[in-house]
């Protein structure tokens, strides 16, 4: 990467602290809707353009952490062919995080079309929400209870400590371990 992100502003630090203290509003779990129920639109893509395996629209992941997460996601894709994206958003725009994440994943085309095997870890720090959206083709490998466990045990402890990048890295590591251990589709 050639562009360095600026140091966190007072407002960003304040947002992170509010996020860490207000996790009681957290919506957690997986999204495993059948493909027939999923809809996406070009307008979703305009809301947050896909910039890579890590799309940090909320600007909460510093470059070093982003590089480490990107490398882990690239290795996972080489090994399993499954695509995973970490995304952050400065706002859900009043939309439910599950719907927002699913629409965004579909608009971006995360996962292989014929396998429906994409995964999106969405972090919405201003709304204090996190979501793991799983393509229908991976629901046996990453069922709701596993995703909830990953959020509660691997991601939230870091978020509560005010370290959002570490929470994202821990979530990716745990998701990757589950996908690597799962039988190939």
TrEMBL record:
Signal peptide: none annotated. Residues 54-176 form the TPM domain. It holds the Pfam family TPM_phosphatase. InterPro entries: TPM_dom (IPR007621). PANTHER family: UPF0603 PROTEIN YGCG (PTHR30373:SF2). This is Methanol dehydrogenase.
